Amino acid sequence: xxxxxxxxxxxxxxxxxxxxxxxxxxxxxxxxxxxxxxxxxxxxxxxxxxxxxxxxxxxxxxxxxxxxxxxxxxxxxxxxxxxxxxxxxxxxxxxxxxxxxxxxxxxxxxxxxxxxxxxxxxxxxxxxxxxxxxxxxxxxxxxxxxxxxxxxxxxxxxxxxxxxxxxxxxxxxxxxxxxxxxxxxxxxxxxxxxxxxxxxxxxxxxxxxxxxxxxxxxxxxxxxxxxxxxxxxxxxxxxxxxxxxxxxxxxxxxxxxx
Amino acid sequence: xxxxxxxxxxxxxxxxxxxxxxxxxxxxxxxxxxxxxxxxxxxxxxxxxxxxxxxxxxxxxxxxxxxxxxxxxxxxxxxxxxxxxxxxxxxxxxxxxxxxxxxxxxxxxxxxxxxxxxxxxxxxxxxxxxxxxxxxxxxxxxxxxxxxxxxxxxxxxxxxxxxxxxxxxxxxxxxxxxxxxxxxxxxxxxxxxxxxxxxxxxxxxxxxxxxxxxxxxxxxxxxxxxxxxxxxxxxxxxxxxxxxxxxxxxxxxxxxxx
Lengths: 258, 258
Fold this sequence. Notes:
The structure is a homodimer.
Chain A: E1 8-13, H1 18-30, E2 35-39, H2 43-49, H3 56-60, E3 63-65, H4 68-71, E4 77-81, E5 92-95, H5 100-109, E6 112-116, H6 125-128, E7 133-136, H7 148-162, H8 191-207, H9 216-230, H10 234-256
Parallel strand pairs in A: 1-2, 1-6, 2-3, 4-6, 4-7, 5-7
Helix pairs in contact in A: 1-2, 1-7, 8-9, 8-10
């Protein structure tokens, strides 16, 4: 089983079927994972699911949040699951059998989220903009869409059975950009810090009248993705934030002076 | 996906829950497997399961047999799934991450069955006596027992994603005893041939008054396991069968002469 399983957060976005929530909890218990977060669940089904056999304590300790941003706020690497059959990826795509070498160094430094979408349509483009990578389970193109409980089971089996002893070297080429090994200064910023930075940058863009108001949602989406691509360290995130706060202050001050 | 997926038979012994049967069919479709056999299903649930979404043709083409012996009759390697938590294995135990190198050479020559037991208690000791090996999914000892649909998904993901190109050499040390590579003469005997041989040997034991009548069920069980351990080739199975038929004829003839 995975030594750092405590550093993994399983996130379900708006699951509908209580049986699936129960199945997810059961798979987590089977493979030694503990931390479940459910985003905006359908209330009656969520209550029903919490009575699932064999995973009672896990479901009772599950976190519940209103947004995905909140669910992954403390995570330094967020992997959204999905298939490319119906979409074009806006972030790096990783096939499940290649995931462990990427996740493992991250688990020693930070906190990883695996995010699963609702049963019907999976994660939206908006949901995925909080993700550093899109995790794809290799399936038959004639039937690519997996059942939620089975998809989680397969991902957790892969993590639990393919992880290496913790002290191995991390091959640099498979690290995500921005992660530089065990150096604490290089620790990737958690998702909430990137959201805070994005907020200040957006305010700055607005103050600078960077683009028309109608473009704001698209800009916000692109900015979110950009920050995940850059994957700045906590240290660098603070520096960039300081810079933008200064710029914003200047812009607002010059406006008052007009 | 697995090149020889057509040579894999998924066998469910007495599944109870129609949702699970549907989930198994869906996982098979996801990972490109086609051949499903259901042994002695509970009739109403079996009919209900056949209407599962997304796997209609697979479920309609599913075979249905009354016994496990019949279900695996044409298979040259039978892997039963289960956990060692509640039992002592009577056959070789293989952990799922180690399965592909064992299965792959077999798939080029013969036919492989993966056998899954009923939801409540799994495969019985009797069921497992038709198996060459016991396949174990590595799980947390605190919650070892997996949901049927999830167990199948995890096994098929492993087979589909870890299989190597077909033309690779087969490392000898991981072959089961009795299999000697691509030599047609060394092709392992299908399960039905072993059952036939076991029948004639048992008759011979009885004619020879080998042991008291009360021992017959235990002897039958041990004999079945012994033949799977020996894993004789088709050619050798025929030779041994010929030998026992001759001995039996002699015994019966000498009895008539008494």
